[in-house]
């Protein structure tokens, strides 16, 4: 997702353009990987000392709710990244070392749904975890 798309979504949802939101979105836009709220705080702190985790989490939750950021759980901690392939159903391989992702275009739900006749599937989340080639070295 581009920054322009993210701002369009925020403005369409009546959210103001604030310095914190701008800086957070820029941070995610320039990092193609999952990141924690602590990484966001460490990035923001030099220009905004004392920024609270509440402010950060509130913005991250808003971005996830609006579809600007994707969220996953890695090692028991919430991680976020800029939405990729907007509007295209896909899944990810996620490197547990560096947080980088690789899109998986094939969805295994068709095969799984065949094994669940008469069940109503309401949604799913499929992620593959491991180590990317750069981190294996």
Summary?
With 137 residues, the chain is an alpha+beta fold. The protein has helices spanning 3-12, 19-29, 37-44, 53-65, 109-114, 133-136; strands at residues 35-36, 69-74, 77-82, 91-95, 101-104, 127-130.
SSE inventory with pairings:
Layout: H1 3-12, H2 19-29, E1 35-36, H3 37-44, H4 53-65, E2 69-74, E3 77-82, E4 91-95, E5 101-104, H5 109-114, E6 127-130, H6 133-136
Parallel strand pairs: 4-6
Antiparallel strand pairs: 1-3, 2-3, 4-5
Explain this structure to me?
- There is one protein chain.
- This protein is of the alpha+beta class.
- The chain contains six helices and six strands.
- It has helices at residues 3-12, 19-29, 37-44, 53-65, 109-114, 133-136, and strands at 35-36, 69-74, 77-82, 91-95, 101-104, 127-130.
- The chain has a three-stranded antiparallel beta sheet. Strands 5-4-6 form a three-stranded mixed beta sheet, with no helix packed on it.
- The radius of gyration is 17 Å and the shape is globular.
Helical amount: 25-40%
Shape: globular
Q: Order of SSEs, N→C?
A: HHEHHEEEEHEH
Largest sheet: 3 strands, antiparallel
- Strand residue percentage: 15-25%
- Unreliable spans: none
**Radius of gyration (Å):** 17 Å
Tally of DSSP helical segments: 6
Tell me the span between the first and last alpha carbons: 30 Å
Strand order in the sheet with the most strands:
1-3-2
Category by helix and strand content: alpha+beta
Number of strands: 6
Query: What do the pLDDT scores average to?
Result: 89
């Amino acid at each position: 997702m581009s920054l322009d798309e993210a701002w369009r979504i925020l403005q369409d949802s009546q959210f103001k353009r604030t310095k914190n939101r701008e800086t957070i979105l820029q941070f995610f836009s320039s990092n193609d990987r999952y990141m924690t709220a602590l990484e966001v705080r460490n990035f923001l702190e030099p220009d905004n000392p004392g920024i609270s985790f509440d402010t950060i989490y509130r913005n991250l939750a808003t971005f996830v709710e609006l579809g600007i950021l994707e969220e996953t759980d890695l090692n028991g901690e919430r991680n976020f990244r800029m939405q990729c392939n907007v509007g295209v159903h896909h899944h990810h391989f996620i490197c547990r070392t560096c947080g980088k992702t690789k899109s998986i275009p094939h969805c295994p739900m068709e095969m799984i749904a065949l094994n669940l006749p008469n069940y109503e599937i309401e949604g799913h989340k499929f992620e593959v975890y491991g180590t990317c080639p750069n981190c294996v070295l």
